[in-house]
Amino acid sequence: MIGDLNLKQSIGSRTFAFPTPAWVVGTYDSEGKPNVMTAAWGGICCSKPPCVYVSLRKATYTHGNIVSRRAFTINIASEKYVKEVDYFGIVSGRDVEKFSISGLTPIKSSVVDAPYVDEFLLVLECKVLRIVELGLHTQFVGEIMDVKADPSVLTENGVPDITKVKPIIFAPGNRRYYRVGSCLEQAFSIGKKLQSNQL
Amino acid sequence: MIGDLNLKQSIGSRTFAFPTPAWVVGTYDSEGKPNVMTAAWGGICCSKPPCVYVSLRKATYTHGNIVSRRAFTINIASEKYVKEVDYFGIVSGRDVEKFSISGLTPIKSSVVDAPYVDEFLLVLECKVLRIVELGLHTQFVGEIMDVKADPSVLTENGVPDITKVKPIIFAPGNRRYYRVGSCLEQAFSIGKKLQSNQL
Fold first, then answer.
1. pTM for the whole thing?
2. Fewer CB in 10 Å around end: N or C, chain B?
């Protein structure tokens, strides 16, 4: 162990990680007005029970909505809605009706107390399981009560196909949105080639 | 509000969300042996302090390592290491020395008690800030103490460029790895076009 031969550079204590999502969080406010906001600090965090989280600043309108309604949806937009996704991250539901202005359609979830975006092809409906205060952001862990998908994005095995959903990737750093590219390999498969080295 | 016109299909309470990462988690075991494992349940979860998490099953070797060492690294592999990344998710450090078999090089972090992968171009060095038990998975929230990057992946502004890092995306469902594709738009910018609708 003679130190980093590749001479990496320290770039500080910052949130640089790839990929991060650009997910649209759907909630109702105290008067039942549907709202959406975009969040990049989100991910799957447990398989059983199936859980997903989003981390939000207390200042956001969505933060208060989730605290009071104990529910939210994760709406995965396709590339063609990148303008709407970005807009949902720029303005606050405190000031504007984002659904009306974007022309998108809120649908009341049948399983949780939150709306989802009709036009988006993959939606996770979540009940709050845990609220973790971390600092500037609060992490809302939601149990995924159901996933709704447009039939057009499902494979013959009934699972969503990322190349049909065409989700948006957010890149911290240069703060740009990217497409998902081509398939590299099948997981839990290509790595087996290295197992022969174990012998 | 007349119900979902697009007739989405219920596909159950499952962890279907895009994108998820394929991150390599670096740790030391109780005897100081460096280990790596691949995790797709991970993400940024706070901006101040800067935090990232990975969720791991208790059965994994890495789970015990993080509990005892209170530190880990997140290593973001480039596409060309997809075979190694997959391998690190197939076998356990309890049984094999994954660094030796893959031929990759562990470097001791100077800021946390964990090793990182020399050959990977972007590395986050983390101290455990919070351990959240969710069910099958334990969520390890780490404070990002420093980020190390190969100078070749930095933009002129000193931030990592996703198109140079070429991270791997994991897709739950069909369980395949994907590339990052082309740039769609600049964030916090394209959405402003919709603001004129507010008037």
1. 0.96
2. C
